[in-house]
Every structure is written in C-alpha cells, then in structure tokens.
Amino acid sequence: MNENIITSPVFFLFIAFSFLLSFGYFRGRRKNQKIYRAAFRALVDTVKPQDQTFTVIGGVVGYHANLVMAKQQPISQIDATITLLPRHSWLYFPISFAIRRFDRLFVTFHCRAPIPGEGHIIEKGYAGFRGPKIANREKLQGETRPWGKQNVEVYYDSTKTRNFLSSLMDILPDPGVIRHVALVPGEKRGFVFMIPRPGKVEESFAPLYRWLAEGLKKETRLRNDKKS
C-alpha cells in the first residue's frame, strides 16, 4: 500500500509542488529583504541620524525604522514603516497584488520647528484607489496640477502653504516614487508615502527632505523675527 503511494504520479506532483513553494518562499524573502534594505539605506544616507533602530513587524513583509536626529536639527525624529507584497507566498501573492498593487513606504517626520501650514499633495490615481482620508478637507482649498508625469491634487489652508508646496514641485520636477506628501501643523508632523522601488527612493526622498528641513528653518526664523 505504501509502495503504491510512493510510486503514484500524484505523489511526485506533490513533491514537485512542495519544492516550488519552498523555492518561491526563499526567493521571495530575499527579494523583500533587498527592497527594504535599499529603502532604509536611502533614508539613513540622506538624513544621517544620530541614532537608529530597525524592527521586524511582519515577518518578511513588514519592517520599521526609527531614526533619531541631532538636537540642532529642525526634525527630531523620523519613523519609517515599509509593508511589502508577500513575494514569499506564490499562492497568496496574486491576490495581494490585485488588492494592494504595490509595496508601500510610509515616512513620518516629527518636527521641532513650526510647520508653515496644513497642506497635501496627492497623486490622483492613489487618491482614487483607497487613498488617504484628509480630516479637514472641507476647510482646505484645492486644485489639480501636473507634477512631472503625474496629475496631483493639491490642498492647502493658505497662499503661504500653497507656495511652500509649490516650491517642492519646483525643486523636484518629477515626483518619482512619491504618491502623497502631507503637512499637519497641529501634530507638528510631516508625512510622505512612497513606493519603495530599489534605486529610486533616494532620488525622490533626498530633495524632499532638504525641502522640508529648509522650510522649517525658514519658518522658525520668520517667527523669531516677528517676536523680536
């Protein structure tokens, strides 16, 4: 009886299928590790933190980075969370890809310096596909503008904030992998959502980081001048 099972074609198919799943697991895990390491390396090389901590939060599909900045910097801390498609699971990957479509990198800037105002730049395709919900959207002015090859929705609470967001689009003529930029002065935080394509994160993130840091420094100087 056992010999019949071992020599059965179904048994060989089962062995082959198991081998393919195992091969897919290790291949997908290596791919995901390559993506998250490249993304976090791009962030670290750009901001040059004083301290850094990396944490696994979802097996081979979720990772978190905590970057602590020097005290003289206008940004005190940067948190980054990356969630990846389950490339290690060939059975679930097609379903996840159909639902989520891409890997996601969320970066939060905790700001020491004051933020000029509330504003958002959202790529229209992302906004229409389970995009972020803006809490104060009805209180903000909005317009649609081209940004590189994308069309984006821009929301702002004042002309000053609009000009600040426009300066990012001037500094970075093509958003690359950026899909959403947000400024929330009430929380003293900035947010950016990116698609972490290897080799592309730093191209978009480095100019954005410099733009935000310089903008925060300028806002601090303006407010100090008003007080004096």
Characterize the structure shown.
With 228 residues, the chain is α+β, with helices and mostly antiparallel strands. The chain has six helices and nine strands. The protein has helices at 2-6, 9-47, 93-100, 124-128, 159-171, 201-227, and strands at 51-56, 62-68, 75-83, 104-111, 119-123, 141-147, 150-156, 178-184, 189-194. Strands 1-2-3-4-9-8-5-7-6 form a nine-stranded antiparallel sheet. Helix 2 (9-47) packs parallel to helix 6 (201-227) and helix 5 (159-171) packs antiparallel against helix 6. The protein starts with a helix and ends with a helix. The mean pLDDT is 83.
Short overview:
The protein has six helices and nine strands. With 228 residues, the chain is of the alpha+beta class. Helix 2 runs parallel beside helix 6 and helix 5 runs antiparallel to helix 6.
Secondary-structure class:
alpha+beta
The residue ranges in which pLDDT falls below 50 over 5 or more consecutive positions are: none
Helix content: 40-55%
General shape: globular
Biggest sheet character: 9 strands, antiparallel
* C-alpha termini separation: 93 Å
C-alpha Rg (nearest Å): 22 Å
Q: Strand sequence of the main sheet, in spatial order?
A: 1-2-3-4-9-8-5-7-6
Count of discrete alpha- or pi-helical segments spanning 4 or more residues = 6
Overall mean confidence score, pLDDT: 83
Secondary structure tally: strands: 9
Order of helices and strands: HHEEEHEEHEEHEEH
Strand content: 25-35%
